[in-house]
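Subject: Protein record for review, amino acid sequence with backbone structure tokens
Category: Structural biology, sequence-to-fold work with a learned token vocabulary.
Format: Residues in single-letter code; tokens as whole numbers, each standing for a residue.
Body of memo: The sequence and its backbone structure tokens, given next.
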Amino acid sequence: KPLLRKFKLDMEGLREYLDIIQSLEPLPGASFDGSEPTYVSPDVFVYSVGDEFVILLNEDGLPHLQLSSMLRDGVPSCNEKEKDYVSEKVRSASWLIRSLYQRQRTLYKVVESIVKHQQSFFRDGVTKLAPLILKDIADDIGMHESTVSRITTNKYVATPHGIFELKFFFNSGLELDDGSQVGSESVKALIKKFIAGEDPKSPLSDERLGELLKEQLKVNIARRTVAKYRTALNIPSSSKRKEHF
């Protein structure tokens, strides 16, 4: 009513303007994205075995390095300069082997901690993903946050629910009415699920999606927040989805 008075419009005229506004694209470059799909090989596998989860590191791409038995038994007979040279190379090789072992050990500890914190996800899927931050894992395994950040960058894990980047498991939380929290990725997964099951002739508005989320999760979520999550999922607005239909 304030808009009708301010712009001296009738309801039909206002609807025409609203239809134009809803047809606009806030991310005009999105339709020109021509990137090729990226294929990844998981660095870690998590299998469900009974009531437990088993973690296996994928070491197919890692070289199996070891020092020559000749060097382990001592540097061959040679002069001091040659001995120093060989000793330096042995130290460098030993350092590389230890570093690779430490990297794998750290990766295992990080994934083990993620599985512990995200038990609901590994049992039931994305809609049960809990809020989690780097500090939670760092404190759990006794390492610095920067170490956890490095080891989870561009690393992928194969789970019973698909392949995910390790960074995926770190997400902010939304507070529920009972004081507990739900992960933002869980909310995105539910939005995706609701839209996948909608009537194409009458797609769900962001406001209606917010109502559905409140019914299922008992969380009050603003329409603009729903729109932000929907946009992050590269899902167009309800008016665009209806047009495409």
